[in-house]
Amino acid sequence: xxxxxxxxxxxxxxxxxxxxxxxxxxxxxxxxxxxxxxxxxxxxxxxxxxxxxxxxxxxxxxxxxxxxxxxxxxxxxxxxxxxxxxxxxxxxxxxxxxxxxxxxxxxxxxxxxxxxxxxxxxxxxxxxxxxxxxxxxxxxxxxxxxxxxxxxxxxxxxxxxxxxxxxxxxxxxxxxxxxxxxxxxxxxxxxxxxxxxxxxxxxxxxxxxxxxxxxxxxxxxxxxxxxxxxxxxxxxxxxxxxxxxxxxxxxxxxxxxxxxxx
Length: 262
Ligand SMILES: [Fe+2]
Fold this sequence. Notes:
The protein is an alpha/beta fold. Helices cover 22% and strands 22% of the residues. The chain has one domain (2-252): Metallo-dependent phosphatases (Purple Acid Phosphatase, chain A, domain 2, 4-Layer Sandwich), CATH 3.60.21. The termini are far apart.
């Protein structure tokens, strides 16, 4: 069995707040909670947006926090990330692609494939031909071994009207690709700052809330112009994976108020 701690969207910044929220206190609370309750996890994955909008160079700060984790935490790219900044401060597993933050974590009975779906200059995502060719190579080599794909941008609409505008582009092409592999067991995505689950082309998927601020439910209707995070506590995911079976526990690690103290 593999036990994974899944975190997403910490939107770290070295100083200041996100509308009053100190994201440093949230990542610290998440790691402290993980140490107290899930020290037996094999590893963690952070599915993108390690730093926030237009924040350059804040990887030193998140690297400092992640270095305190007793569980290896694997970083991924989101729309707000900076590839060279991330690579300069955070270690990637061996065999990561040289020019993208894409890699596989292999365990005895499963492969965890972390994709880089950033499209430069856009909040929407892409998987260019270089990255999708790499994915084909990896999936071909796995044969029957169960594969779990982590990616920042969901490759489908989720009926979350605001977030649906900034999903993975050419999603059908991506779904055509993975549909050809019966060993792809589950997709896990960040980006939407909200937990959802479902199936696409018969493949189960889940999204997750953010370590930082959450996104509101789609009703009452809202749009990015008037974006106001709801007063919802953050969570991370605890995944148990064994023989192709998956459980996901969304786990609150602190109160909503944590991070808003003066
Ligand atoms: Fe985000």
